[in-house]
Design brief:
Elements lengths: L11 H12 L13 H24 L16 H24 L5 H43 L6 H11 L6 H34 L1 H5 L9 H14 L9 H7 L3 H22 L4 H15 L3 H10 L4 E3 L8 E3 L1 H16 L12 H31 L35
Parallel strand pairs: 1-2
Helix pairs in contact: 1-2, 2-5, 2-6, 3-4, 6-8, 6-10, 8-13, 9-10, 10-11, 10-12, 11-12
């Protein structure tokens, strides 16, 4: 008895081998639904779609983050040491200042008490940040899976179900469109994964330096800015919830599922644009430029422009609508907030556009001005060439000598001519 040729294969390939040997007999004739070549190919396509969907979910909201999960991590421990020593140094400075100005009484005593309490809070918080971020990341991943791939009423669950029970499930062209859309979504999901993981790692590592600012007296301005950006990064995948109301309308049709996947691409690009601090607009616009250079389709250009719109970059103060900060300017602003929490004031610089944005703005305004001048010129030319109706003279008395009135003469003095 010959051994099974699939025994030496492991993993998913073994399942494909067993499926092929069990359904590839000559008596089926390759008829769909009887386990022949067509049925095997259909099963392979479904498995490919399901594996792509699983990989997309793992990339958009992974269970494990790159950030350290423990405070004694090799990557986090140097920042923890620096933050703790910085907080203690600030506390010592506050105690010395309060001791030298003890004659002021209650205000200095109150400041020393606040510094003592907030220093303890800061040191304890530095050690708990990695664990808290890890638990929050797992919660976000579980919630994302429940919202998008838990049953047939969710986005990815509906797509998996439509591969089996959809009205156009047997159409090879539609299947190819859906697989292509899933591959594109996978590419955007990989971009989201890279930007989110790097951002979360950076913000977790800088947490001790931010928390150390509490030791001065409890100024939470820098803490709020840091928490806002970190939470924005972690909850960014839930922007895809905007597609949930349309899942039920697209359920049962793979073509409509493809449209939802294209909308998901736009939302993920917009997610990077708004959700990733500092470098998000740069990454989104670089992706848009890459797509526009390699795709001549105007529809694709419109989609990527919806995900990464035209903006002006500003280096300091805002100038006009739709402007974003350069990465250096954004980091400088947050650094100013952190320095302010430490009591260090940084000077504000005057606002101006970057050179490229200023040139783009001038060209756009010149183009709009030229278009407006051309429209005004056309309106004036049209007004000049339009024929006007002839003007008629007002009706007057008939030109009859018999009925013409004679001028009235006034009596004059003797020796003078009469005046009419």
């Amino acid at each position: 008895m010959a051994s099974d040729p699939c025994d030496d294969i492991i993993g998913e390939a073994k399942k494909y081998c067993e499926r092929g040997t069990s359904g590839g007999s000559s008596d089926t004739g390759g008829v769909p639904g009887t386990g022949g070549i067509t049925g095997g190919a259909s099963d392979h396509v479904k498995d490919l779609a399901n594996s792509l969907i699983k990989k997309i979910g793992d990339l958009i909201s992974p269970k494990d983050a790159w950030a350290p999960s423990r405070s004694d991590s090799v990557l986090y421990e140097p920042f923890l040491w620096l933050g703790q020593h910085l907080a203690v140094a600030i506390f010592v400075c506050v105690v010395v200042v309060c001791g030298l100005t003890a004659w002021q009484g209650a205000p200095r005593l109150k400041q020393m008490g606040a510094s003592t309490g907030w220093t303890l809070v800061a040191v304890a918080g530095m050690a708990s940040i990695p664990g808290a971020v890890m638990l929050l990341n797992k919660a976000v991943s579980s919630a994302f899976t429940a919202a998008f791939d838990s049953n047939e009423s969710t986005l990815f669950g509906a797509i998996s179900d439509d591969f089996q029970h959809g009205t156009d499930a047997g159409n090879p062209l539609v299947t190819l469109l859906v697989i292509s859309a899933l591959v594109v979504v996978l590419a955007f999901a990989a971009l989201v994964f890279m930007t989110r993981q790097i951002g979360i790692l950076a913000f977790v590592c800088m947490a001790p330096l931010v928390l150390a600012s509490l030791a001065r007296g409890g100024d939470t301005t820098a803490i709020r800015a840091w928490a806002q950006r970190l939470l924005g990064l972690m909850f960014a995948p839930f922007a895809l919830l905007l597609l949930s109301p349309f899942v039920e309308f697209a359920h049962g049709s793979l073509v409509l599922d493809t449209l939802l996947l294209i909308a998901a691409d736009v939302l993920m690009l917009r997610m990077i644009f708004h959700g990733v601090p500092y470098f998000g607009p740069k990454v989104a616009r670089a992706t848009r430029g890459w797509v526009e250079r390699r795709t001549p389709s105007p529809l694709v250009h419109a989609l990527v422009r919806a995900g990464a719109p035209d903006v002006y970059e500003r280096e300091n103060a805002p100038r006009g609508p739709r402007t974003v900060d350069t990465p250096g300017r954004a980091i400088s602003k947050d650094r100013g907030v952190l320095f302010a929490a430490y009591g260090i004031n940084t000077p504000d610089r005057s606002g101006r556009l970057t050179t490229q944005s200023a040139v783009a703005k001038e060209r756009r305004e010149a183009s709009e001005s030229a278009t407006r001048r051309q429209q005004l010129r056309e309106v004036r030319q049209q007004y000049r060439t339009t024929p006007r109706p002839p003007t008629t003279a007002p009706a007057g008395p008939p030109n009859n000598p018999a009925t013409r009135r004679r001028p009235v003469t006034q009596p004059s003095a003797p020796g003078q001519m009469p005046t009419p």
